[in-house]
Design goal:
single chain; Helix Hairpins
Length: 319
Amino acid sequence: MAATEKLRAAAHAAMTFQRPVRTAVGHWLADRASQYPATRIGSILLGCMMLASCHEGVLDPHGPVGQAERVILYDATTIMLAVVIPVILLTLAFAWWFRSGNRRATYRPDWEYSGRIELIIWAIPALVILFLGGIAWISSHDLDPPKPLESAKTPLEVEVVSLDWRWLFIYPRERIATVNYLVVPARTPVHFRLTSTSVMNSFFIPQLGSQIYTMPGMTTQLNLQAGTPGAYPGLSAQFSGPGFADMQFTLRAESGDNFTNWVAQVHERSAVLDEATFTQLIRPTRGAGELTFGSVPDDPFDMVAHGHLATLWSPKEAL
């Protein structure tokens, strides 16, 4: 009995506490509703969703790979909606027709099988799977990351090393390097070779397309192209430790002349990416800024890609 009385007292206290809270929340919602009518709130929400979904994402591509991937996304969505929308409409129609008040609906408690219905409900999903499988098969070959892009221009070679937790970009032909940003000529293919110093990461520029992994002791390849000049944000799409959230970079697509001038300006920088500097770069660093190296005497990419670099950090060093 004592336990029962304690439970009743606790429940009464909880209800007493909730009443003023519910009252306050109700008054706040009423005030907001009076200040912002439903139509205005709906318009604001609709505008925010449209703006958020159309900029700096996969639905706003600026390159041939990203544009092809958007077409695949639209095609797959259209094929699936061709099934989803009729199913939703038929579900509502059946619920309305077979309601209890409709005397015209035939009640068949012993009905259990129809060959025509079985054919329809199995044939349509089979066609959907066939169409989606065909799209995936064709696109996986056409947009294979190592496959070179068709272009009359010679691709720019860029080596990518994912560090803890920043990005190192090396231009082997130009013998320069940057950290957390890279500059490429617009309308020119870029051939990336990617690896990682310690853990697996994921290299992704949403507006250009084709996310690909970087793995220690391995080399992956990726071909992309920026169709128009501009700045395109990139990120790591693979959780890789406490500094993962800050592991972002920017790809800046410039005209051919501007890219040539930028390379000349970088060569004038005194910073050198030598062995000592690279050793400091690979140490875990969070929230680091952009760096530029005007000279790369010894390219460290092959050493990292072949696993000749020891990067085992203690928990304290990784914080």
